[in-house]
Amino acid sequence: MAESSSDHYREPLGIPSSRASKRLPERGSSVYPPGDGEDGLEDSDVDEEEIEELEQEVNEMARKIRRFRTRLPGLYKEALESSILASRPALPLVESVDGEIAAGRDSGGEHAESSTGQSVEERSPVAEKIQLIKQKISNNVSAIPIVLKSVNECIMEINKLDQYNVTNIHPSFKRKRT
Q1: CA 172: distance to chain centroid?
Q2: Which tens digit of pLDDT belongs to each residue from 108-131?
Q3: Assuming Cys at both sites, which of 27, 37, 106, 177 could form a disulfide with 112, CB separation 3.0 to 4.6 Å?
């Protein structure tokens, strides 16, 4: 079914308006001759009324756009935060300085369960792995002063060699210049 341009009525941006029920004919159509209004109104009066209605619709759309522009970033942020929190796995056990398990205790010091319903004792393989990693890290940290001392000794030896003006360097240690 082909629609002619005079039969086609467009809603601005898909927002229904109060004009939708009126469906005024296009200007210059054969329904109303130019200058004659069926209900006694002239074309300028109809145009002014249409302009006022369109201005009201534009103002309403501008208010909606402003409202959406102010609300949508906050809504997107909340939705993203909630989806990230929902997909976040349960935190592994972390021991505090006193040796108590921090993740297994709530703020009152009572035994707590994770969001999956597992208690602290049921997650012992994970706790063992974490404990092993912590031991390795502490061993590496304790070895840092020894490594630093040997690095400083090497730097001092290199500086001593730089002070000597050695002219008898074996050819295998010289760079080939091309």
Answers
A1: 57
A2: 444 444 445 555 555 688 888 998
A3: 106
